[in-house]
Amino acid sequence: MKKTKLKHLFMAAALIMMFYIGQAASFISEGVEKTKTAYEEIEKKQQIITGYYPAWKSYSGYTPEKIDIRKLTHINYAFANISSDYKIEMGYPDKDPENFKKLQELKKIAPDLKVLISIGGWNWSGRFSDMAATDVSRTKFAASCAEFVSRYGLDGVDLDWEYPVGGGLDSNSKSPDDKQNFTLLLKEIRERLNAQELKDNKDYLLTIAAGASNYYIENTEVEKFQNYLDYVNLMTYDIHGPWDAYTDFNSPLYNNNDESNQYKISIDSSVKSWLNAGLPADKLVVGIPFYGYVYTVSKNTNNGLYQTHSQGRSLGFDVIKNDYLSNPEYLKSFHAESLVPWLYNGRTFISYDDSHSIALKAEYIREKNLGGAMIWELSQDSEGQLLNSLYEGLYDGSILPAKDYQGHWAGDVIQKWLDMGYITGYPDGTFRPENFVTRAEFVKIVNNAFGFEETAEITFTDVKEENWYYEEIQKAYKEGDIIGVSETLFAPEDYITREQAAIVLSRLLNLEGFEKGAGVFSDSSQISSWAKEYVGAVAYRNLIKGYGDNTFRPLDNIKRAEAVVLLDRILK
C-alpha cells in the first residue's frame, strides 16, 4: 500500500481511539446515556461480582467504607466462626459490630448491594464435621445463622467449609459421613432462612465457597445440595502454590500442553467438572485472585516456570505492582495457553494476574453464561486496577465518572482530546493515563486506524492461529510498519517500548532516518542501534521529546498519556 505523509498526519490521530484488552474489550461511546448509574447497569446483567472482605483488614486501615461498592453486587464478610456449642459466633468481636454498621451505611448508597456473612475459611473449619454430624447440632447451627443475619441486617450466609471428608488443616475434624451431612446441613440452613424470610419480609441468600478440584466434587453431593444454594463460589485459585514441588501458575484459565512434573487443573477444567456434576451454569461463580505467589527458584531455566524452589509466599497485587512490575530487572512473560502472566529475574519467579488476564477470565465467564465472578480479596487491589478490568469485562459499557486524569501532567491535553471526540475512556469512565499498551494491542490500534486489511504469512513461533491477534499481526507484517523482536519472535504480550513506538511512527509517516537526531538525549547510548535512526527522525521533528532530565528512556513502556501528547504534537 502506497502511503503519503499527509495521509498519516491525519490518520495518526486515530491511533489511540481505542485500546483493546485481548479481544474482549469494548469502549464507551459519546451517545451512551450518562445518567444511568452503575447500579442500574449491574441490575440488568446476568453476572454478579462478589468480593470477599476479610474482617482482619480493618486492623490495618482497610475499613469497609474503602470498598469500591460501585463495581460489586455482593460482599462476603470473612469470617465468622463456629462456637463449641455449635452456633455461629463473631470471628472478630472487637471489630465486627462496627464493621457491620459501616456496611449498612454502604447499603444506603447502594440499596441493591448484598452483604453475606461467610463462616469458616481455612483457619476456622475445624468444627464443621462435628457440627454437621447430627440433626440436633445442624438445627442449632442453622437457627443461629438465621438469627445472626436478621440481627445484623445481613443478606445471607456463605458457608466456607474447607473441606468435607478430607483436606484442610490436619487438626480439623473430618469423617466420610461429611459427604451426606454437608447436604443435610445446607438443607437445614435453607429451611431456617426461608422461615426467617417470612418474619422479616426479606429474601436471604445461601452460598458456599467450594474447592476447584475433582476431589471436592467426589466428596460432596453436588447434584443434591445445589438445590438449596443460590450460587457456588468456586475457589479457582491456589491451584498451584508454594506447597508444590515446582513453580507454576496460581490461577491458569486453561490447561496447557507444556511438559511439567505437576498436575494440571485450570479454571476451565474445574468449571467443566462442576457443570458435569450437575451444578447449573448460572449458579457457578468463578474465583478471581487479587494476589499471586513469589518463589526463589533453584536454577535459572525456562524463565523460572516449572522449576524447583527453596521458598515461596503470597503477595497481594498492590505489592506486585509497586515492588516488582515497576522493577526493570523483572521480565514479564505471558503464557499463550494458560493465559496468565508471570515475572522472572533469573532468581525469583512470580505468578500473578493482571488487568489483561482478568479481562480474559471475565470474557470466559460471560461467554459460558456463568453466574459471575468472586474475588479473594478486595484489599489487595486498593487502587482498583484489577476490579476495573473485571467489571468492564463482565458489564461491558457501564459508565462511572472519568476523573482519574485530573491533576495529571497530561490532564489538559487528555481533556482537550476527550472534548474534541478524538479519544474515549474505558467503559467505567476512567482514562487510565499510566496504563501500558502491549505490542499486540498496538498492532490492532494501527490496523484499525489505517485501515490495513491485507495479510501476509507469518512465521513467528509465539503467535498461534488461535490467538486473537494472529490476523492482526499478519496485517501489520504485510505493511511492514511493525516488525518482530527477532526473525522468529513477535512478543505480542510484551508492552511496547518508547523506542519501538518511535519506529512505528517513523515508518508510518515515511520519515527519513536521522540517527544524529537521537544525540539530543543524554541516554542516547541506551537506544538500540537498530532504533536510533527512527528515534532520531521523530526527535528531530520534535514529535517525541525527552523527560525533564533530558533522557529518552528508550526501553520504558509507552503510556496512554504519552501517546495522547505525542499525537497532539503531530496535529499542531
Short description:
The chain is an alpha/beta fold.
Helix/strand-derived category reads alpha/beta
The CATH class designation of the largest domain is: Alpha Beta
CATH architecture annotation name of the largest domain: Alpha-Beta Barrel
Rg, Cα atoms, Å: 26 Å
Query: First CA to last CA: what distance?
Result: 26 Å
Spatial arrangement of strands, main beta sheet: 1-2-4-5-6-7-8-14
What do you see in this structure?
The protein is α/β, with parallel strands linked by helices and 572 residues long. It has 2 domains: 5-26 and 410-571, no CATH class; 48-235 and 280-289 and 354-395, Alpha-Beta Barrel (TIM Barrel). Helix content is 33%, strand content 14%. An 8-stranded parallel β-barrel has the order 1-2-4-5-6-7-8-14, surrounded by 5 helices. Strands 10-9-13-12-11 form a 5-stranded antiparallel sheet.
Element layout with pairings:
Layout: H1 5-11, H2 38-43, E1 48-54, E2 74-82, E3 88-89, H3 96-109, E4 114-120, H4 128-131, H5 135-151, E5 156-160, H6 178-200, E6 205-211, H7 214-218, H8 222-225, E7 231-235, H9 267-276, E8 284-289, E9 291-297, E10 309-316, H10 317-325, E11 331-334, E12 341-344, E13 348-351, H11 355-367, E14 372-376, H12 385-395, H13 411-420, H14 439-450, H15 470-479, H16 498-508, H17 532-540, H18 560-571
Parallel strand pairs: 1-2, 1-14, 2-4, 4-5, 5-6, 6-7, 7-8, 8-14
Antiparallel strand pairs: 2-3, 9-10, 9-13, 11-12, 12-13
Helix pairs in contact: 5-6, 11-12, 13-18, 14-15, 16-17
